[in-house]
Amino acid sequence: MQYMLLLHHDDTPFVTASHDEQEKMSAPYMAYNEALIKAGAMVSGERLRGASAATVVRVRNDKTEVLDGPFAATKEQLGGFYIIEAPDLDAAIGWAARCPSASFGTVEVRPIWPTR
């Protein structure tokens, strides 16, 4: 079964860090990626740009509203995601606990609802 791991954290330390500091911060994620790949659990994953780069689209009364970010009222925001293959929720939770974001933010685990 596939699960999405939604990574929520404060991106400020990464954005304000030097290039060398960013590389050090990224190293645990690279190791995590390799572990997922080696286990055959990695389906996909990407880091997202901050909420200030977001655009929200909604339709109300047949009118399209387009709003530019930032939107987060909190410092923690959706910063990235992984889609993983895991035999059950317990295994997906195990992968979420190993994700570096779990140490300083939160990792939300959601089963993917197949559309096919």
Description:
The chain has 116 residues and is an alpha+beta fold. The protein has one domain (2-111): Alpha-Beta Plaits, CATH 3.30.70.1060. It contains three helices and six strands, in the order E-H-H-E-E-E-E-H-E. The longest helix is centred in the N-terminal third of the chain and has 21 residues, at 19-39.
Q: Please work out how many helical segments DSSP would assign.
A: 3
* String of helices and strands: EHHEEEEHE
The total number of structural domains is 1
Helical content stands at 25-40%
What is the residue-averaged pLDDT?
A: 91
Distance between the termini: 14 Å
Largest sheet: 4 strands, antiparallel
CATH superfamily annotation: Dimeric alpha+beta barrel
Poorly predicted spans: none
Content-based structural category:
alpha+beta
| Percent in strands | 35-45%
Q: Give me the CATH fold name.
A: Alpha-Beta Plaits
**CATH uppermost class:** Alpha Beta
Silhouette: flat
Strand order of the largest sheet: 2-5-1-6
DSSP strand count = 6
* Rg: 16 Å
Shape-level CATH architecture:
2-Layer Sandwich
In short:
With 116 residues, the protein is an alpha+beta fold. Helix content is 30%, strand content 37%.
List the helices and strands and how they pair.
Layout: E1 2-10, H1 12-15, H2 19-39, E2 42-47, E3 55-60, E4 63-68, E5 76-85, H3 89-98, E6 106-111
List keywords for this structure.
116 residues; alpha+beta; Alpha-Beta Plaits; four-stranded antiparallel β-sheet; two-stranded antiparallel ribbon; flat
